[in-house]
Model the fold of this input.
Amino acid sequence: MDAPTTVPAIKINRFLPYWAVLGSDVRQTVNSWIYRLWVLLSLGSAVGYLLYRFGAKQMGGFVANAPEILGDLLTWVVWGSVTLIIVMTAGAISGERGTVADSVLSRGISRYQYFLGKWHARLAVILGTYCVLAVTALGGAYLLLHSESLTTDGSVVALIVVGALLVLDITCGVSISALSTSTVVSITLVWLALYGVGFLMSLLPAQYPAPDRALQNLPNVLRGYYDWHMISRLVSGALSLSLLIALAGMIGFARRDV
Done:
């Protein structure tokens, strides 16, 4: 009599839907014309500005103030390209309302996995691109301007400050996109939320960290003159607020109709 055969247990990867959404959204974001326009504008502005200041230093003998130049470039990343970043994030979920129901209901992807995949994909693409562009600008400043006032620790702290503000921007965009039914409405709400909060924080006393004061102080940070206690409060506050916003967006998205 033949021995009964045992069927091997099938291992189910519970994170497979999350990774599928993450990978798909990374490819979608990188291939979008808005992302490529943002990269071209950021890279072109950084290269053009550095070459202009290098030429002014070589031909006119002007003093190249590298911390001021890099501070302007990093500030431009936040204020100058924030519109394109909002467009890239505010349409992450609201722009795909026609496929969300199919993904969630027909393919077994939970709403939490869908939201986390979208959120983490936009964070990875935008922050990764920002780090590459910022490090390239720092390297170009060191090579072209030969400034001794730039410090390594100050450069790292400046990148962390701007990165924390970008995390807040991205999270706010994706979360509002999950709660909205229209990309246009999402973009409007993100604008109002970010600039409204930024304006209110600018009215706080000087001892409280605020995004506008942090950006204005970037040249001093790049020189190595910074208050680590104030910087840590700003970064931890931005990341904590981002986590709360993402939690609210994820819960709201899980409870609404798709």
Q: What stands out?
A: Residues 18 and 113 are 5 Å apart (CA to CA).
